[in-house]
């Protein structure tokens, strides 16, 4: 059964907060999405989820079906014309059903703070009357170990996945670019998360990138922004006492679709992602559908 726990630990390293970051956000490794607009302050709540299935190769009696959720407060505040500070405060709800039984856990996760700097904000037009705008942001942040991490040092590989946090201070780097022409736009994100160790255990670093195409449909008071895109995730192997743990790490590609709706000073949106290809834990783990819904106030 300990082997299946190693696989589940990989899943949680996908989550960063141990119960889903779509993203997320995931934030740096947190999926911020297309909106709210970076020109304004915002505050809101998000609900994100992921589901996984793991099975030890050659032994179908050792399995785990896991469902991770996060209810999260998120906000962003402009400082002058160039800077924005973002904060993510997650509450994690986990359910793991395996050959050892069912385990449920919940609690405050690790709070993340990110600062972004706007390198480019350009608005032009061409001879045909097209309206063109571009924004380019770079930033970085820190994940604070506010979530509970109380794994037994003698059995940390088996217990790390049941914690609300990672127990470590981790660092994030990110870049975001948006190109908009009339009612069409492209949004791209690149994120890298540097994980540090806790109790001699370290989750592997994670790289992810995404590209979305969106279209704005406006009425008198409401703007709809349907969008489609693709996401790529790559995870390095986890480590114990600085040694790589076998059968952890991997990569996955997702197709995504969603809608963002803005009216007055409120935004509502959702996003669903389905795997196109994946190779996690040497094929012993498969990720299922994941998604996000949010309600955000812009001011």
Textual characterization of the structure:
The strands form two sheets. Strands 2-3-4-6-7-8-9-12-14-17-18-19 form a twelve-stranded antiparallel barrel. It has a four-stranded antiparallel beta sheet with strand order 10-11-15-16, with no helix packed on it. It has one domain: Autotransporter beta-domain (Lipocalin). It has two helices and 19 strands. The chain is mainly beta and 299 residues long. The chain has helices spanning 2-15, 156-159, and strands spanning 22-25, 42-55, 63-79, 83-98, 101-108, 111-125, 131-144, 170-181, 184-194, 197-198, 201-202, 206-215, 217-218, 222-235, 239-240, 243-244, 250-263, 266-280, 285-298.
Distance between the termini: 50 Å
Question: How would you name the oligomeric state of the polypeptide chains in this document?
Answer: single chain
Name of the CATH class: Mainly Beta
Our estimate of the beta-strand percent is over 45%
The geometry reads as globular
Q: What would the average pLDDT be, to the nearest integer? A: 83
Radius of gyration: 20 Å
Low-pLDDT residue spans:
1-29
Order of helices and strands: HEEEEEEEHEEEEEEEEEEEE
Overall number of structural domains: 1
Number of DSSP-assigned strands: 19
């Amino acid at each position: 059964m300990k082997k299946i726990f190693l696989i589940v630990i990989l899943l949680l390293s996908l989550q960063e907060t141990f119960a889903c970051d779509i993203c997320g956000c995931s934030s740096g490794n947190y999926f911020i999405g297309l909106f709210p607009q970076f020109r304004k302050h915002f505050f809101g709540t998000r609900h994100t989820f992921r589901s996984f299935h793991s099975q030890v190769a050659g032994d179908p009696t050792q399995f785990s079906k896991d469902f991770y959720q996060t209810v999260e407060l998120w906000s962003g505040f402009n400082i002058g014309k160039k800077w924005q500070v973002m904060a993510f405060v997650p509450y994690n709800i986990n359910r793991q059903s395996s050959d050892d039984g069912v385990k449920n856990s919940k609690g405050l996760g690790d709070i993340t703070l990110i600062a972004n700097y706007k390198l480019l904000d350009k608005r032009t037009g061409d001879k045909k009357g097209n309206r063109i705008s571009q924004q380019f942001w770079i930033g970085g942040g820190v994940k604070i170990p506010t979530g509970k991490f109380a794994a037994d040092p003698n059995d940390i590989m088996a217990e790390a996945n049941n914690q609300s946090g990672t127990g470590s201070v981790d660092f994030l780097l990110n870049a975001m670019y948006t190109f908009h022409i009339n009612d069409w736009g492209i949004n791209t994100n690149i994120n890298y998360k540097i994980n540090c160790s806790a109790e001699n255990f370290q989750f592997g670093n994670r790289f992810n990138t995404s590209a979305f195409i969106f279209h704005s449909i406006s009425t008198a008071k409401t703007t709809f922004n349907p969008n489609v895109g693709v996401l790529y995730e790559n995870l390095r192997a986890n480590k114990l006492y600085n040694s790589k743990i076998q059968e952890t790490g991997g990569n996955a590609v997702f197709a995504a679709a969603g809608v963002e709706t803005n009216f007055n000073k409120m935004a509502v949106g959702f996003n669903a992602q389905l795997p196109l290809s994946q190779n996690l834990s040497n094929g012993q783990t498969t990720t299922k559908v994941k998604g996000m819904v949010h309600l955000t106030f812009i001011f």
